[in-house]
Amino acid sequence: MVFDSDSIASPIEAEPPHHKPETSQRCRRFLREGLGRGEALLDVGCGDGELLEVLKRQGGFDKVFGLEIDPELTRVCHQRGLFVIRGRAEAIPLASASLDAVVCSVVIPYTDSRRAIREWSRILKPGGLVHATYHGWGFGWDYLLHGAHFKKRFYGLRMLVNSVVYDWSGRRLPGFLGDTLCQSAKRLRLIYDSCGLTLEREEVIETVAGAPRFLGHRLRKTKIG
To answer: Residues in domain Methyltransferase type (predicted)?
Structure first.
């Protein structure tokens, strides 16, 4: 996963309170289905390469490769025979208009979202696709309401508070308090519009307290620049 150098992700969120394999499967299915064909596809924040391996086997693209900032995870990907480059989501080391598709699995909450999404638009060819998943507000509510101990509940609380502050001011809380965000479709649409990306499809993947736990968005680059 690709993290902004200005934030540190807490390890306690690794296993959500209500981890459901079927939810993970829905997220993965959203990311990989309907991508079409083309020359090159990039998995931004590819982690250990599990999804990247599936995309490579799926076919449809001449080149399928990943971006990862963690050196150990990059090494694991290389051992699996995957082509992965080191880099940050906010500064992808690739030429403009060089890719046909981008996938991004729950990476944006840990980054400077505006800069990272702007990079998707920059590296995509006109008409290129993005399949991305995000933590919705229900993800924070899940931790706050159902966390097994105080640290997990506090993680959910600070995620929600940080998201409110970010929506209001455009800035995160300082230090570890601002390490991750819940994403809203409204805020994301504003970013998409400013980057020349059009939201073609939204899928709500499970809800908690009436709010999306995960969001899946299919985007298309419709404007240049």
So the answer is: 42-130
